[in-house]
Amino acid sequence: MYRIMENRSLVSQLRIVFVCIIAASIAATAVTYAAAAVLYVYAQYKCIYPANYYEMQIPYIDAFIRNKNVALFSQSGKEELQNMLSGNGIYYQAVDAEGNILYGTNLERIFDDKAELYKRFNTTFKRQNYYIYTVPVIDDDGKVLGAIALLYRLKMSYVGARGRWLIIIFVIALISPFFYILGFTMLFSRIFVNSINKPLNLLMDASQKIKERDLDFTIDYRADNELGRLCAAFSEMKDELKKSLSAQWKMEQERVEIIEALAHDLKTPLSIIRGYSEALIDANTGGSEKLLKYLSIIENNAEKCSGLVQQMLYALDLERTNVHLQPVPVEMAEFLEQKVHQYELQAKQKKIAITLNIQGGTKTPVLVDKDRLERVLDNIVSNSLEYTPAGGKINISVKIEDNNVFYEICDTGRGFSQKDMERAFDKFYRGDEARRSKTGHSGLGLFIVRHLIEQLGGSIRLGNAESGGACVTFHHKIFRDIQ
């Protein structure tokens, strides 16, 4: 059936499933009813008494009563009659000549008086859904001593406990169509679901591979329906994406090579410019003040260009996949205090106060890539120093918790704009006017910081403090055990 449905449209598959459910339910119901009919026929002979079954027993019981006659009024006769009719489905009542009850399984008075009793001898009459046959008991002298009344019903009855099982079976057969519809609905719906799950699972796996940037796969599903066409379109999209990404990757490689070659080519002339400008400054210490000023500007801008070239080369290295961390044991408290001391030298020039707050087990050495962490802190704190006005504050909070170190660096500057928080980690983003450096920068600082933190197994987020000013929060993983 799966092969039949595979190449059909989803609407056709639904119709086939519906028809199969109805047809299978009807067929199963017909088989069940036929089996129930056969069972009923068999039960008529083995398990079910006909409606007149007890009526047919009356002649034999009548002969027994007439044979025993007056002995039935003795204890032994009473027991014999009781044993004969026990569990037979026939009730009985022994009465005297006046119609008074002597014993029996039915103790409700049947005959009001002697006249009615005599009237009912050897006859069958009906009272309260029971048929009653009366056999007189007469002694050898012809005197009527009483009678035995036999009570029975004209209806089908069952043989022992098998009858209860037959009732259960017939009831189940009667309601079986509902179970068949439910069962076949579950069966054929599962077949239908499986027929569409295969291509859907293939598409989900393909989407995951694309997410993982793995385009070397095929979607092995061919069908002339909506899902087949969807898989074919997805395969075409993957092929086009592969071509596009290959071209993009090639262009990116070329771009990286050009930037790398350009950066390396710039290093030499910039070094020469710096060298000659320093030499001219040294040679003209007593010369024109205007000339010294121009030479200083040339030297400063040459140094700035050299720094930008170094940042570009470092950013290119960060984008490479072969990252090798070099963790070393670091006592975080001592390390952070030394770093803050270095920043204080620059902060004093702008009268900026730097505070450090450390929480957690800072005395226990932890393994961390010290060089990368230093570069992260240098970039973030230098930005805060640059954008915090004179007389402002920079607060550095550090918390060591489990296998992570959490940092929050806040300043009292003007903070980040919404655009800054959305794009600050983009390569070469220069920021809006609120956070743009007057001296200019490469737009690579936070780009480098984000890559470094990700290499350290952490993440970074930008925000603004409630009282104003920018806040940079980030964390990185550590290893506590040092062998």
From TrEMBL:
The chain crosses the membrane at residues 16-42, 165-188. Coiled coil: none annotated. It is a multi-pass membrane protein. This is histidine kinase. The gene is yycG. GO terms for molecular function: ATP binding; phosphorelay sensor kinase activity. Residues 194-246 form the HAMP domain. It is found in: Cell membrane. One of its GO terms (cellular component) is plasma membrane. It catalyses: ATP + protein L-histidine = ADP + protein N-phospho-L-histidine. Keywords: ATP-binding, Cell membrane, Kinase, Membrane, Nucleotide-binding, Phosphoprotein, Transferase, Transmembrane, Transmembrane helix, Two-component regulatory system. InterPro entries: HAMP_dom, HATPase_C_sf, HATPase_dom, His_kinase_dom, HisK_dim/P_dom, HisK_dim/P_sf, HssS/ArlS-like, Sig_transdc_His_kin-like_C. Its EC number is 2.7.13.3. It holds the Pfam family HisKA. Its main location: membrane. Residues 261-480 form the Histidine kinase domain.
